[in-house]
Automatic annotation (TrEMBL):
PROSITE patterns: DIHYDROOROTASE_1, DIHYDROOROTASE_2. It comes from the Bacteria. The gene is pyrC. The active site is at D250. The lineage of its organism: Bacteria, Pseudomonadati, Pseudomonadota, Alphaproteobacteria, Sphingomonadales. It catalyses: (S)-dihydroorotate + H2O = N-carbamoyl-L-aspartate + H(+). This is Dihydroorotase.
């Protein structure tokens, strides 16, 4: 009998997920709950989650969608708009309903039509968040039609993020799903209050995966995958052991027919094999000793939350990802569809 190498780590969390609502929520939530103890749940539903009552009710729907016996904890977020009231933010945070608030520049991504038109309009909200110690999560892309889509993250750093960080030196900021060398450098050289999440897809693929040999909608997400040098910079940062960089899958399910379309939706469904996808990268980079910090320690430390008790074990015995997964009365194509990954969650 051959014995496979194994790796046991403290139970991990996912600091960026889209669980959706209704039948889709019921279909996808068990995949995240199987791999992670907690997850930051993004608020870009339609309509978006803009108040305490709405977010509290959404949390109940998530808990109701979990498999019997699951101890998964959804950590909820508020969707910021031009009209967000600082008092509502503080009330929801104080009541334990909002873990964080999410800044979507208006029209940057899926479900961002009611996002913030100019960061200046929410300065009173950011003042309050800084005061009460509530993290700000940012989809960091400009939406200016004159800016090339591959440059939108790097331009956001220069036009918006540098000033934001300077104006709110004590505000905890998570630069979500970073995709560029510029973002990696910004976070690495930033202060103790600036962190980033990195998705599995941006560690595995560059833009060729989307465009070579035909248009491949299942590799399309936002921010869009960039050229190879950016992927390599992200891999270096993720596997470096840097303590302000952590796991956030950005699992974002869209029905197959809505992705395979003349105007396909942005987002990858990576929840079912997320840990398998990440650990492949750490193994390839010779950095398995850094995986636990990235997956299970850096996130809770940055958010000021306790580390999870318990462990999960991964085994280097291989797992083949199915070509499609039925969920929510429709069909989803998972990230790595049809591929065999070296490690599997035991
Ligand atoms: N990442 C994506 O491509 N899509 C996300 C939105 C987001 O995180 O920007 C979605 O909700 O579908
Ligand atoms: Zn986003
Ligand atoms: Zn997202």
């Amino acid at each position: 009998m051959t014995t496979h190498p194994t790796l046991t780590i403290r139970r991990p969390d996912d600091w960026h997920v889209h669980l959706r609502d209704g039948a889709m929520l019921e279909g996808v939530a068990p995949y995240t709950a199987r791999q992670f103890a907690r997850a930051i749940v993004m608020p870009n539903l339609s309509p978006p989650m803009t108040d305490v009552a709405g977010v509290a009710a959404y949390r109940e729907r998530i808990l109701a969608a979990l498999p019997a016996g699951s101890d998964f904890t959804p950590l909820m977020t508020l969707y910021l708009t031009d009209h967000t009231d600082p008092d509502e933010v503080e009330r929801g945070h104080g009541a334990g309903v909002f873990t964080a608030a999410k800044l979507y520049p208006a029209h940057a991504t899926t479900g961002s039509a009611q996002g913030v038109t100019s960061v200046a309009t929410i300065y009173p909200v950011l003042e309050r968040m800084q005061k009460i110690g509530m993290p700000l999560l940012i989809h960091g892309e400009v939406t200016d039609s004159h800016v090339d889509i591959f440059d939108r993250e790097a331009v956001f750093i220069e036009r918006t993020l540098r000033k934001l960080v300077a104006d709110f030196p004590a505000l905890k900021i998570v630069f979500e799903h970073i995709t560029t060398q510029e973002a990696a450098q910004f976070v690495e050289s930033g202060g103790a209050n600036v962190a980033a999440t990195i998705t599995p897809q941006h560690l595995h693929i560059n833009r060729n995966a989307m465009l070579v040999g035909g248009m491949r909608p299942h590799a399309y997400c936002l921010p869009v995958a960039k050229r190879e040098k950016h992927r390599l910079a992200l891999r270096k940062l993720a596997t470096s052991g840097h303590d302000r960089v952590f796991l956030g899958t950005d699992t974002a399910p869209h029905a197959r027919h809505l992705k395979e379309s003349a105007c396909g939706c942005a987002g990858l469904f990576n929840a079912p094999y997320a840990l398998e996808s990440y650990i492949a990268v750490f193994d390839e980079e010779g950095a398995l000793d850094k995986f636990e910090a990235f997956a299970s320690e850096n996130g809770p430390r940055f958010y000021g939350l306790p580390l999870n008790e318990g462990t999960v074990t991964l085994e280097k015995s291989g797992v083949t990802v199915p070509g499609e997964i039925a969920a929510g009365g429709t069909v989803l194509v998972p990230f790595h569809a049809g591929e065999t990954l070296a490690w599997r969650l035991v």
